[in-house]
Amino acid sequence: MSVKDLKGIVEVKDGSVSVKDKAKVRSMMDSLIYEAVFEPDDKRRTALFIFIKEIAKAMGAVPASIQGLYEEMGKNYSGFTVPAVNIRGLTYDTSKAIFRKAIEMKVGPVIFEIARSEIGYTKQRPLEYSTVVLAAAVREGYEGPVFIQGDHFQLVRRNYLSDPAAETNYIKGLIKEAIEAEFYNIDIDSSTLVDLEKPTTKEQQRPNFEKTAEVAEHVRAVQPQGVEVSIGGEIGEIGTKNSNPDELKAYLDGFNETFKGKKGLSKLSVQTGTSHGGVVLPDGTLAKVKIDFDTLRALSDMARKEYGLSGCVQHGASTLPDEAFNHFPETTTSEVHLATGFQNIMYDSKGLPEDFRKEVYDFIKKEYAKEWKEGQTEEQFIYSTRKKGFGPIKKKWWDLPAGVKEPVMKEIEDKFALLFDKLKVVNTEDIVKRTVRPAVVKKEIDTGLIGL
Q1: In the CATH scheme, what is the homologous superfamily, with its name and number, of domain 78-345+403-435?
Q2: Which terminal Cβ of the chain has fewer Cβ within 10 Å, N or C?
Q3: Would you state the pLDDT for residue 119?
Q4: Is the pTM of this model over 0.85?
């Protein structure tokens, strides 16, 4: 089936989409999103993405900002931690698995996100990513706000030191692209600019809070009418030293003094002992991570009680042992970022054919040989690099037979069931309905290009 088969089922009139047969559209979505993602013509691909997103909105899956919920959490912690999930590969199938489990467990807040770096190596520009997520929502019959987030929209330190204006403009351009693609949640990461050689904590954090304020003002300037984008900041680069209350105070005071706008940050990312992807040992297993939960609790309480934020955000958590996740709601952490653990399920699943896994690994060893560091074992190299095995051969992943993907997705669903339970987001639909009212932002549909 193709978009042309939607005639009589979906109508476009005066720029608005109406759906005559929701069940039929849901049954067609697998083929519709496949057609859009792998359309070779750039202009038609963009038109297809926009059309599918407008269908999703007409069917009740609406891109939304989590701002309202986070303002509520800033006044009164709600007892749960919001999971934010980076999906690097099999994005449509994984999103469907998340929506299935969220519907079943009556989960309200789940964030679908992608980082600046991931956009590049997974070959998923913001418009594609948001459309694929919304298409999955439609396929599973999900109705409600869909939270899509730009994660680690980061200023790269070496780029910034070389040409501050160019790097700043790149991030502003990426934010504009993402917001146009209906990412209504943006995490600004200028923690890379912290200068620890300065004599005081505030001067160390100054490049960070001043740049965050500048970029946050840009977010407010480009957000659509009726949408208040949720903006996050960051005080400690993930994988470096742990954050402390002095840094939080210096950063947030400095931001509030610098930011020229009505609404500033809704949350703050901190470093408490994790690293992205975990630390892989020579045999390919992961080193145990010890998170400083006392620091996380102290910083979250301080962010909420003194600054009205939803709390603090924990990055790099998906490779933690299952028993660690209970601690996030207990320490009033407002959001936790999860990525590599789901990638690991895909690669390590018994459901993935060994010949396909070998094909991907051979591709990685050939294409990224220059990234093989001296002293790394093959297991360490593959583990640290296999995140790049999704984008360049994306179609091969999408073309895996249903019989291969289904057991892999069952493992992912089971993992989400566990996480939703431990993060205490089960039965949270009502608070989201009460605090989040998505604004439907219409996008122009080119019916000529899509052939409808």
Answers
A1: Aldolase class I (3.20.20.70)
A2: N
A3: 97
A4: yes
